[in-house]
Amino acid sequence: MNGPWLPVLTALPLVGAIVLAFLPKGADRLAKLLALGWSLVVLVLTIVVCANFDPDGDRFQFVTSYTWIPQFGTRLAFGVDGIALVMLALIAVLTPIVLLASWHESGQGRRSVKTYYALMLALQTCMIGVFVATDVFFFYVFFEAMLVPMYFLIGSYGGPKRQYAAVKFFLYSLVGGLFMLASVIALYVVSVRELGEGTFAFDKLAGMDMSTTAGRWIWLGFFVAFAVKAPLFPFHTWLPDAGGQAPIGAAVLLVGVLDKVGTFGFLRYNLPLFPEASRFFAPLVIVLGIIGILYAALLAIGQNDMKRLVSYTSVAHFGFIAIGVFAFTTQGGSGAVLYMVNHGIATGALFLVVGFLIARRGSALIADYGGVGRLVPWIYGAFFVTGMASLALPMTNSFVSEFLVLLGVFSRNPVAGVVATLGIVVAALYVLWMIQRTMHGPTNPKLLEEGSPKWRDLSRREAWVIAPLLVLIIGLGVYPKPLLDVINPAVKATLTDVGQQDPQPSEVAGGNR
Amino acid sequence: MSTAVDVLAADIQAPKLDYAALSPILILLGAACVGILIEAFVPRRARHFVQVVLSLVGLAAAFVAVVLVAQREVITAGGAIVIDGPALFLSGSIIVLGAISVLLMAERSLDAGGSFVAQAAVVAGSPPDRRLASEPTSHTEAFPLAMFALAGMLVFVSSNDLLIMFIGLEVLSLPLYLLCALARRRRLLSQEAAVKYFLLGAFASAFFLYGVALIYGYAGAVDLAAIHDAVNGSAANDALLFIGLAMLLIGLLFKAGVVPFHSWTPDVYQGAPTPVTALMAACTKVAAFGAILRVFYVAFQSTKWDWRPVLIGIAMLTMVVGAVLAVTQTDIKRLLAYSSIANAGFILTGVVALNDRGVSSTLFYLAAYGFTTIGAFAVVMLVRDADGEATHLSRWAGLGRRSPLYAGVMTLFLLAFAGLPLTSGFISKFAVFAAAIDGDAVSLVIVGVIASMVLAFPYLRVIVLMYLSDPAEDGPTVSVPGGFTAAALTIGVLATLALGVVPTQLLDLAGQAAQFVR
After folding, report:
1. What residue intervals traverse the membrane (chain A) (predicted)?
2. Can you tell me whether residue B331 is helix, strand or coil?
3. What is the reported pLDDT for A162?
4. I need a surface site. Which of B14, B63, B295, B398 has the fewest CB within 10 A?
């Protein structure tokens, strides 16, 4: 299907943000409704795009491009493959949900409500842009621009330590981004020398010859940026702070989508552009991923703040995604991409439920709860299902992806597969223990004594927020095929770029192209 | 081609002057001279208005002249002045940035009587001096002084001969020394800034002149093309050449505010009236780097293996020192000064690339940076309390709550300094780094990237202060800018955004202008 679908899709939320910014002061309700309506329009448009995507067609579809800065050889080039498409769908689904979830939260204090919603929409433009750009320069622009709205969302609307968290988030990401900038520039210079003209077009760069040394150095620049973003151990320390301090709506987008940009970057840029370097560094990434899985899980057990705990579980999950990507098998790769979507749904839902609890109790500390399940059975139910999805119980969406990743890793490197499996055990521990301490047992007397607001169960708004995600958790757990159909061809194409086939029994890994 | 030697010879002929090609310089000098006459003959009340109009008209006329000359490449005035691509581009930048600075200088609604004191010679702190602070009159001589300085800058970037370059240097420097001393508030600081700038500047000029003398001893000429020939084919003692070049370099790098010749920058930027600081940060930087480009690309290109490593080292040092020291600053003007030092390092990165791309990226960087930095200083002018501008960073806390618009504008400028995409700062950095990698100065780019990371922190600290801190009880107010400052701010914002989103036109222009005529 032709036409400027993707440019329109990218620009639409930004237009909404600008409209919101010009609303008169006080028109909070209008701002909220407008933002929600706008995000639903984006959702509809995304559905149209998804419906017209042909899984067996070209690798990149809806391709359009416009001249931008000819001196740098960069164009406004749009296009989606299967991997980007499922991420687009995730963004489109999550955004209206988090906007609805932020209904009351953003109104607290003296902060402007319309600014909050405008920032959210601006963030959506950047998120969409990152996934639809097929020009490395253009991608980088979105990659960095994304920081600004998120910085203000955390810094202006976050918890008590929001300044610290926002600055840490910004500096970590910017530092990673600047490493990537050096690599992007170097890539450009290499393209000038190899192809005769400087270009940032993905398809031209993907087939380019490059000296081994240059390839490895440039790979490292990209890797650091993505590893900070994802985040991989040892670049992860900003996430618990940012996730713990961000307002719930922003936190969901942060771990649900923003962090996926890192793992998406591995798949889209590191692997196809630098096949040799990717093969060379793969063991390193797998080791980092496994350390992340186990280390973050252990830290998650020790957390007493639910938002921080969920953030740490994300670090562990990103370890899984990274080893899936760098296992260079179709199962591992497809599992990793599916994991990116599923993690966005499951962890996003977990964050939202934690947000419901915080909205009632005014605290994120586990110790401030206890026996809540009896007071709010519906929230308890939602908490339980999302928790189970987070620890990848069969029949939930995460199980399929985690299983595929482990399968893929095991066929390439059995030891890594076995060690990573330990992560599942620890995951069960932190999730179940959190549920036990907050929901089960005798009701914490403090909850009832101080005459605090009555514990209402799920309101209708909250039900609308969480229900779609619960449906997706179970639905994709039972029937993931539609997603896998879209993802598989893109992952296969990526692996062809790396020059790796799925290992046959007894074949040694690491073939040549 | 006639050289300076010929001119010195017995039969002196009047050199042919291409008046059309020289017209931008002549217009500015003319406007400056008329400005002085205005001081003598126009009644005090009308002077400010007349001076502002004259300066702006003069600058506009000079800009038109630059555009008209743009199709030509000439060497004129006995080989002393060259009008080529870089000279025209730099002249145009200086004129436009100078005009925006003049807008800031003309602002009188923020402080009764404007940024300048009425009688600079009164002893600082004495009772008459205190009375001056609230008097609605001011030194309107500032305008002709600025015009002289701008004319000197045009000469500086278009000179084809080291002696003329020296004259340009002096014509641009002397008015700036004076302008620094004219601040209405904090007189002592302002005078200190002027004296420091003058003393160190005089030293730098002396170094420059001594360098010219030694190079003359080596090459037998001060003409850049003749020096180029001499460097290529001379059997003379290289020691003269290198010592001369080093001294010349000291003089030029001083004006550009490059480490280790930077130490005047923070004091002078802090003490000078803010519009003058903006003028120096934007225009002087353009002029100094224009001259550096010309000297190295035209005269000393062929001996690059000797000086390029030195310049690379200096660029690294400048970026790192500027960035690290910026982190510890507590005064916004000093912070911007250190940021300008670090930016000088980034610009040098483009200079040492030593290819066409290096020239064009440096030209682009200078223009783009000028717009942003003038804008930033314009915001500094707006944040005021009873004592004038509130430049201490702690006073900026919570500014975003008090005045979201101006805090937002400042945030845009700071993000541009930090090199975030969709601002001009990103495109500039990208251009110079790409040129440097292309010129095999990868190490420089790595240091540049690290310096950018360090530098992001002070900028971010200001943003945090403005938005995330609670405002102080007795905090400064953000004045509503008068028409002049508003115009300058608008231009700054538009240029910063436009050069970040659609930089094609200016990049194209800079690319076309990248050829020096020898």
Report:
1. 6-23, 30-49, 82-103, 115-132, 138-157, 169-190, 217-236, 248-268, 280-302, 309-330, 336-359, 371-395, 415-435, 463-479
2. strand
3. 85
4. B14
Which chain A residues have a beta carbon less than 8 Å from that of B422?
141, 145
3-state secondary structure of B474: coil
Q: Which residue has the tokens 């500015």?
A: B28
Contact, A45 vs A479, CB < 8 A?
Answer: no
Handedness of CA B282, B285, B287, B289 (dihedral sign): negative
Neighbours of A356 (CB within 10 A): 22
Closest CA to B511 of B364, B302, B351: B364
Q: Lowest-pLDDT range, A108-122, A329-343, B153-167, B180-194?
A: A108-122
Q: Residue A468's CB: how many other CB atoms inside 10 A?
A: 16
Average pLDDT of the residues in B258-284: 92
- Interface contact flag, B438 A174, Cβ < 8 Å: no
Q: Which stretches in chain A have pLDDT values below 70?
A: 1, 105-110, 449-454, 503-513
Q: Could you tell me how many residues make up chain B?
A: 518
| Cα–Cα distance measured from residue A473 to residue A475, given in angstroms and rounded to the nearest whole number | 6
Per-residue pLDDT tens for A131-175? 999 999 999 999 999 999 999 888 888 888 888 899 899 989 988
Asked whether the beta carbons of B334 and B328 are under 8 A apart, the reply is no
Chain A residues within 8 Å of chain B (Cβ atoms): 68-72, 110, 140-142, 144-145, 147-148, 152, 155-156, 162-163, 166-167, 170-171, 174-175, 178-179, 181-182, 185-186, 188-189, 192
Q: Which two tokens stand for residue A87?
A: 């991420």
Residues of A in contact with B449 (CB under 8 A): 178-179, 181-182
What SS3 class is residue B160?
coil
C-alpha distance across the termini of chain A, in Å: 33
pTM recorded for the entire structure: 0.90
Quote the longest CA-to-CA distance of chain B. Answer: 75
| pLDDT tens-digit map of B6-28 | 555 556 677 788 888 889 999 99
Positive or negative CA dihedral for A410, A411, A413, A414? positive
Using DSSP, state whether B293 is helix, strand or coil: helix
Pairing of strands A74-80, B74-76: unpaired
Beta bridge partners of B75: B82
**Locus of tokens 């002393």:** B80
Contact A69 B427 (CB under 8 A): yes
Smallest Cα distance from B428 to chain A, Å: 12
CB contacts < 8 A (A, B): 82
Q: H/E element holding A152?
A: helix A147-157
Question: Minimal Cα–Cα distance from B420 to chain A, Å?
Answer: 7
| HSE (side-chain half, CA atoms, 13 Å) at B372 | 31
By C-alpha distance, the chain A residue nearest B469 is: A163
Distance of alpha carbon B46 from alpha carbon B201, whole angstroms: 34
